[in-house]
Amino acid sequence: MELPIGTTTDQAPANPAVTEDMPATQPVGYWCGLTHTTVTRHLRDAMAKIDVTQPQYWVLNRVNGGPTAPSREEVVAQLTHLADGPHEIARAVDQLLHRAWLRIDDGQCLHLTDAGEAARARLRELATEVRAVVHQGISDEEYVAALKVLRKMVANVEGDGTPGNPS
Predict the structure, then answer these.
(1) CA 156 to CA 142: how far, in whole Å?
(2) From the CB of residue 78, how many other CB atoms can be counted at a distance below 10 Å?
(3) 3-state helix, strand, coil in the chain (%, to 5)
(4) Nearest to 7 by CA among 25, 28, 21
(5) Is the CB of residue 126 less than 8 Å from the CB of residue 47?
(6) pLDDT per residue over 77-136, tens digit each?
(7) Is the CB of residue 89 less than 8 Å from the CB of residue 59?
(8) What is the pTM of this model?
(9) Is residue 147 over pLDDT 80?
(10) Cβ–Cβ < 8 Å for 70, 112
(11) Mean pLDDT of the 9-26 span
């Protein structure tokens, strides 16, 4: 494996107590994983307080968000990659149908009920509140810069084989 030109930073072991003058040596995988776990747990804990799961929120948004009403199979296929298991989205659809937040029409397409739309709107407010906590002290510019760096790292690993984009 060839290192990019000008790269001299060593990789240090993950250290949650790393000082501000040494973060360049920290493994990005560790920090991305810790961030994902912590933020997801915080969001799911907030949703649990109102008896809703994150996959249920995804389903409500997906059913609401397209130009045409999706079928159950379409929702499951589109969201399963986000879930913790292969049956989690189908289970969320069933739970939302049971709560009468979703209904199925004669063409087997899913629609939000009035109660489902009210829940979706409340969950969006909650997600916005959680985002404000997570982003506290972080400017939009810093956030965008962090995302650009992470996207570039993904491109570097999953690229097409050109310099800087390994195959």
Answers:
(1) 21
(2) 15
(3) 60, 5, 35
(4) 25
(5) yes
(6) 999 999 999 999 999 999 999 999 999 999 999 999 999 999 999 999 999 999 999 999
(7) yes
(8) 0.78
(9) yes
(10) no
(11) 62
